[in-house]
């Protein structure tokens, strides 16, 4: 389970994409057993990230939200351009979309082209999301605020809306490149669509994508799409 913390994603918890510290991967696994987080991420706990708290919702509403997260995953997969395939059997990044108790949705998957592997994520925050509320502004001001590496940004037009599409490279070994589009709807719903050249959490990192799946314009179009908008209570 990836969890947005400071602009990008942290991972936590038993049963999640990151295993607890000290556990070992299964035999023949490429997974890194250390519970690490990507650059700029903050490990969440129920105390530090209120959206992880116990859901105070009827089961019917909980089911509806999880179904909405599943729809987001399906729509994001359907938007994937030709030439890329979804990795459906990765235990560290399973196809497991989530809805959290305070208005936060997330879906993600590894994407492959030949032997190169990257990661695609969509996050949706309602005005009730304590994480989404941290990010202020619109356009490039918003896009550059939510990702600590900052990077560079271009303002795109999508469906007559202005969308910040930013990008940055981490100077790791090997390096990783990311591009993300962020849009805040008039009703306060915030949508972030991210593509990353190489996933994390592996003993041996797979070759990174040399060409990310979506163009900057396609990222902007996804960010404003009704497919990833949710009704505000």
Automatic annotation (TrEMBL):
The organism's place on the tree of life at top rank: Bacteria
Region (Disordered) location: 15-41
UniProt name for this protein: Restriction endonuclease
């Amino acid at each position: 389970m990836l969890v947005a913390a400071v602009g990008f994603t942290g991972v936590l918890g038993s049963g999640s994409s990151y295993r607890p510290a000290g556990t070992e991967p299964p035999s023949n696994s490429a997974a890194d057993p250390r519970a690490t987080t990507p650059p700029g991420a903050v490990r969440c706990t129920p105390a530090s990230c209120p959206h992880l708290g116990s859901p105070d919702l009827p089961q019917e509403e909980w089911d509806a939200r999880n179904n909405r997260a599943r729809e987001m995953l399906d729509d994001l997969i359907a938007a994937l351009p030709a030439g890329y395939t979804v990795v459906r059997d990765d235990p560290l990044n399973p196809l497991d979309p989530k809805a959290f108790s305070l208005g936060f949705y997330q879906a993600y998957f590894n994407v492959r082209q030949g032997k190169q592997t990257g990661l695609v994520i969509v996050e949706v925050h309602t005005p009730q999301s304590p994480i989404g509320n941290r990010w202020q502004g619109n356009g490039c001001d918003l896009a550059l605020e939510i990702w600590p590496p900052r990077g560079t940004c271009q303002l795109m037009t999508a469906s007559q809306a202005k969308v910040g599409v930013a990008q940055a490279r981490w100077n790791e070994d090997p390096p990783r490149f990311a591009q993300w589009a962020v849009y805040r709807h008039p009703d306060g719903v915030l949508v972030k669509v991210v593509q990353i050249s190489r996933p994390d959490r592996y003993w041996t990192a797979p070759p990174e994508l040399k060409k990310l799946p979506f163009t900057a314009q396609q990222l902007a179009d996804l960010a404003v799409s009704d497919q990833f908008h949710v009704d505000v209570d």
